[in-house]
Design a protein that fits this description.
two-stranded antiparallel ribbon, Cytochrome Bc1 Complex, Chain D, domain 2, binds heme C, 5% strand, single chain, 2 domains, Cyt_c-like_dom_sf
Length: 346
Amino acid sequence: MKKIMWTVMVLPAALSMSVAVQADTDVSKASQAQVAQHLAPGFRAPKDNEFVHVPPTMADLDEADLHPELKKVIRKGHDLFVNTQQLRGVNVFNSMNCSSCHMGEGRLPNAGPIWPAAVTLPDYRPKNDHVNSLEERIAGCFMYSMNGIPPAYGSDEMLALSAYHQWLATGVPLYQPGKSMYGRGYARLPDPEQTPDTQRGAKLYQAQCAICHGEEGQGLSQYGKVVFPALWGDLSFNWGAGISRVFTLAAFTKQNMPLGKPNSLTDQEAWDIAAFVDSQERPQDPRYTGDVTETRAKFLDTFHKHTQYGTEVEGRLLGDHDSTGEKPALPEGSLRHRTFEFGESR
Ligand code: HEC
Ligand code: HEC
């Protein structure tokens, strides 16, 4: 217990390292690069051709020259982002907050910073094979990562969350940064030297992760608050979530976990742990056709070739069930597929 108390303390400490910086215009590129590294200890320096952005903080918002109504909405978006559990049972059906995976309030490089979405969308997205808006991108994380049902497009929640994304992108030019944004996503690790091994991963998991995430990956909630989110099982992200891809899970783990000790695992260890975590059960992929082998085949190229869903691991066919965890079964047609056939009457 003592250990857990200590580790909980790590969180605010890590966040307080984020030096309050005004929007880009006030800061030279060099000092931005320094701050960006400071935000993410142990990471490589940005390359010359990479766009570096240090998102503003909530303290900066107090000072910003924006309409008070807008500030109110941005604050609500921040609140929803770091305490998404307030939507539990309505839009969220697991133990995640957005900030469980987008760490440092969505500001940290190499921990899925969210500002790039606000300056690159609308854009084509291979996962669903059409052009997505920012709201639809947010809906995607509700659907899969939160095992949820997204708030309606245009709702107060969507507006607030979008406003918070855009606030973090203050000063970033639209589109221009292209694909070279320092710290975007979870920087992919080099391919593993040895094939990732679930048994090696299981041992490492017990030694490095179980103290917080639990021996059964169930996480920990206390007094109705999530302290440690679940890594698998009913309270975790579902089989369609981006982080269920082994390479994403490995990259996230290496660069962010164990909490407070980023970059302490070797690449191979991160791959092994990711293979192990990904070999455990979790709620069904919302794109499920009723048959796991068929669903795997249908989304193989764009997604499941990176997961163990629909494969047999230690005698178990992963994903061969129709449990949606805490979430009521999805209403028919809830995964709206957009097509744009301009010129056709509608
Ligand atoms: C279980 C982990 C997890 C949770 C929880 C989660 N996300 Fe994500 N999110 C991801 C992953 C993985 C990606 C893809 C990152 C990449 O490109 O490699 C992503 C991408 C995004 C992006 C696009 C970022 C970019 O670079 O364009 C946005 C925006 C986003 N998430 C918003 C949210 C919001 C809002 C919530 C809460 C409603 C949320 N996410 C919850 C894992 C998560
Ligand atoms: C000291 C406690 C602690 C340890 C040890 C730890 N984590 Fe975490 N982990 C957290 C917390 C807390 C979060 C949520 C991040 C936040 O809210 O800032 C998290 C988030 C995550 C997430 C994203 C959310 C989710 O539940 O899927 C993954 C994946 C993860 N950890 C994997 C690991 C792995 C793998 C290890 C072992 C290498 C590990 N963690 C060790 C505390 C810990």
